[in-house]
């Protein structure tokens, strides 16, 4: 399903890698390959000290993401928001933007409908930072990045900073 290094850890694509702006395809096959990929996604997230990681961030354009926060793990497959409440503002980062953080306003509570590894429909809720992580990862599945919520001025400043980090010239 993806290019895997020998230790099973996947390389995280950094902005401005064009794969980050692409829309992922829904998962239609629920097999061992999917379960193995989710396992590697969790391992890659932990190695990079992330709270979440989405498949497109490792170059796989499938609607799959993982979140792990305060000892709880969540698998998001073809996820969608079915309910939300309130608003929160807070600092947000992304493994595809090393060292870059920005304030983003998001719903404070969300209920998510997802598939499990067998293709069954599951729902789970998240509040505060967990809700933020779900929504951030789900944005990745639509090719949306956290910098897309910022003003042009702030976004351009971050683009310049990100270009320096990744060695890009423009
Ligand atoms: Ni991210």
Please, could you describe this protein's structure?
The protein has a 3-stranded antiparallel sheet with strand order 1-2-3, sandwiched between helices. Strands 4-7-8 form a 3-stranded antiparallel sheet. Strand 2 and strand 3 form a beta hairpin. It starts with 31 loop residues before the first helix and ends with a helix. The chain has one domain: Peptide deformylase (Peptide Deformylase, Alpha-Beta Complex). With 170 residues, it is of the alpha+beta class. The longest helix is centred in the first third of the chain and has 16 residues. The structure holds nickel (II) ion (NI). The site of nickel (II) ion has 5 residues, from helix 2.
Summary?
The protein is built from three helices and eight strands. It is α+β, with helices and mostly antiparallel strands and 170 residues long.
Count of distinct structural domains: 1
Query: How much beta, percentage-wise?
Result: 25-35%
Number of helices: 3
What's the average pLDDT? 93
Q: Gap between N and C termini, in Å? A: 31 Å
Per CATH, the architecture is Alpha-Beta Complex
Provide the succession of SSEs.
HEEEEEEEEHH
Sheet with most strands: strand arrangement: 1-2-3
């Amino acid at each position: 399903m993806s290019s895997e290094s020998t230790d099973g850890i996947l390389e995280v694509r950094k902005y401005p890698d064009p794969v980050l702006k692409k829309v992922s395809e829904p998962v239609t096959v629920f097999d061992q390959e999917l379960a193995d990929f989710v396992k590697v996604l969790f391992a890659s997230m932990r190695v990079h000290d992330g709270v979440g990681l989405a498949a497109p961030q490792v170059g796989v354009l499938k609607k799959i993401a993982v979140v792990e926060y305060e000892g709880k793990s969540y698998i998001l497959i073809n996820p969608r928001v079915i309910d939300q409440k309130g608003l929160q503002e807070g600092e947000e980062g992304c493994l595809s933007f090393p060292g870059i953080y920005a304030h983003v306003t998001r719903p404070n509570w969300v209920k998510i409908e997802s598939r499990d590894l067998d293709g069954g429909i599951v729902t789970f809720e998240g509040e505060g930072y967990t809700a933020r992580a779900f929504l951030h990862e789900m944005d990745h599945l639509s090719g949306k990045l956290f910098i897309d919520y910022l003003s042009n001025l702030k976004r351009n400043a971050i683009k310049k900073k990100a270009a320096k980090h990744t060695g890009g010239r423009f």
